[in-house]
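Reopening: structure tokens for the protoporphyrin IX containing FE complex, inputs below.
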Amino acid sequence: MSEAIMYNTFFVFHFFGAICVFSAAAITFLNMVGMAFTTETRGMWNCSYWAMKMAQFWLFSIILILVSSIYLVFSRWGWKFPWIDVSLVMLILMMALSPIIIRRLKEVHQAIDSETENIASLKSMEKVRDRFLWNSVTIMSLEVAGIIHLMIEKMGTLGSILTFFIMLILGFLLSKVVLRWANKLNPIPVVNHIEGTMTTH
Ligand code: HEM
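Re-run output (same inputs, fresh job):
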């Protein structure tokens, strides 16, 4: 097969991977929003199930992108472009976070699965609103948006590094805003065992 045909084939894989990564990020995030904004066990179960499945698909699409990226870079571009180097770092960060997110979402789903009441327990609600899980998912989602921006704009060193850090900060802020909003609408009760009282976050 000629070099041009091989390149175009891998480019199609890369583009397909990009659509998968973007969809997986959006569906995982929306299901996590769904589970954070409800206290009803059935709804939480559905959202946590789909968030977990989509996070697994997310990892699969990251691997697809990585394989195709390596071919595109080695066959034509090389490593001298900052947008390529920075997006590789972003992708490796995602690969490292993905298994942790999948494990945490499995734990969330198992906790909800063992519920017997219609309204989720305090333990499940705390697991659903786990800060580390939320930060990881929102930062990863915004890094995907950042990579797409880098791929299209093909930015220089400063632009690429700024994109990385701006998306990191925006991801962190997004999780803070969503959790604050969820806690306002459905506060998690805090039981004070010493005084025997109950307040909210
Ligand atoms: C979440 C990860 C990624 C997504 C969503 C993504 C998405 C895209 C998209 C949409 C394009 C087409 C841009 C255009 O033609 O204007 C593209 C091109 C490209 N990507 Fe990625 N990409 C990702 C990761 C990477 C990584 C990590 C590398 C390299 C290490 C890479 C290397 C390339 C190269 C070299 C091209 C240019 C192909 C060409 O124009 O011939 N991508 N990517």
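The chain has a mean pLDDT of 93. The chain is about 80% helix and 5% strand. Marking as resolved unless the reporter disagrees.
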